[in-house]
Protein: NADH-ubiquinone oxidoreductase chain 6
Amino acid sequence: MMSLIFVSLMNSALYFLSSHPIALTGLILTQALITCGLAWITLSLSWFSYILFLIFLGGLMVLFVYITSLASNEMMKTNPRASSVLIVMVMILMWASSSWSEMTMSPPLETTAPLSHLFSHQMVALTAGVMTFLLLTLVVIVKITSALNTPLKNFIF
Structure:
């Protein structure tokens, strides 16, 4: 688990070294995968992390379509400074993972987590309101796009 947190921090540091939009999209996808992996380990709920990743992936697909339509002819250049920083980060990760494996770890997390730990009882009304709002938004967007029989953005130049 500590290795995933460290990889997440390294991935966050790479945002500053990348300037191409598609590379940034790849970094966001990697960060989403790491976040979902951490949620799976922490909550012991594989379905929650799977659904969370699918939601992230759906949003990234929309983002990818817009980015490729805006910066389709931009060449991706490698930055020598980014390569050296990446090599140093990988070396630190390998060193840290070997030293963490030698340390005694705390007892493992519970293997089963009840569903009641996922939601707070005080926030049930707010959670139900947000779910209703999202459902209503989905229905309105479907009605708007089906009434026009066109996508939301027209790609005719």
